[in-house]
Each structure stands twice: as structure tokens, then as C-alpha cells.
Amino acid sequence: MGWLKRTSHPTVNHATSEDIPKPTSAHIEHIPSGTAPLPRYPAAPLSTPDAALQFIPAEEIAKRTSAESGGLLIVVDDIVYDCTQFLSEHPGGEQVIRSFAGTDCSWQFWRFHGKKEMQEFGRPLRVARTAGAKNRFKEPPRYIGLRRLGDEWD
């Protein structure tokens, strides 16, 4: 255990308090990268009808996948929602929303949510409308009504 023993050598200069660098608030995370961050889209007032929302092209929405890129946007039925602040509140967890960042998730959304949730939680997150946003996953077919109801139910 001799290698753990601390000894001083007469020729070694020990640092004084003046030699120790002072901490600064300049961190590597705050060094400008040369590109300005994308601006966030403001939430639309609750009274604004969906048809009156501003239009954002689907290509622009695809770039918005995190807070650093101007907000995490998702699309449900051609309406754009900024879910950046809602991530930590989502009952299904953050990863569910993150997996659809910048894309359409309409059929997945409606499989787990109803109109009441959309009015209560979704409407305050609306920022715009769009067209042409792609869903990465093909919707599986749902088979409903394979049997025909007829006279045999007397």
C-alpha cells in the first residue's frame, strides 16, 4: 500500500490559493455553436378554432424534436402540439412522446385517448396546423363487425 502513501518532496512546489483557478460561470454548454436556436411557437388561445391556427409546413415540424431545437412538436389530425413542457406530466412517460417528436401520431393517440383528454390537456398545447406530416408506423387494420346482425337474434 505504499503507492497510496502521500509524501512531499523538497523539490516539489506546492500550489498556493492564488495558483488555483477561480470558478467561472462560463461552461462548455453555454459556448455559442454558431447557429441561433430556433424560436418557440407560442400556444394558441383556447378560443382559437383549429382552422384559424397558423400554418407550419411538415418539413419545419420535423426539425422540432427537443427544447433545444425550438420545442418538441407532435402532430395529431394535422394539428401541431408543443409537448416540451408536458413531457414530465404525461402519464405514459416521456419516452412515448419523444418517440413521435416531429412526426404525426394520430392513430396511436386515439387508441389511448378520448376527446375529453384532448380538450382538457391537448387544447392548451396547440400551436399551429399542418398538412403532410408522416407517421413512421403503419396503422394495423382493425376488424369490427365481422358478423352481421340479422333476424337470427329473435
UniProtKB/TrEMBL annotation:
Query: Source organism's superkingdom?
Result: Eukaryota
Which chain positions lie within coiled-coil regions?
none
Keyword field: Heme, Iron, Metal-binding
Q: Which InterPro entries did the record assign?
A: Cyt_B5-like_heme/steroid-bd, Cyt_B5-like_heme/steroid_sf, Cyt_B5_heme-BS, Cytochrome_b5
- Transmembrane spans: none
Cytochrome b5 heme-binding domain segment(s) = 53-131
Pfam families according to UniProt: Cyt-b5
Q: Name one GO cellular component term.
A: membrane
Give the start-end ranges of region Disordered: 1-34
Q: GO molecular function, one example?
A: metal ion binding
Q: Member of which family?
A: Belongs to the cytochrome b5 family.
What is the protein's given name?
A: Cytochrome b5 heme-binding domain-containing protein
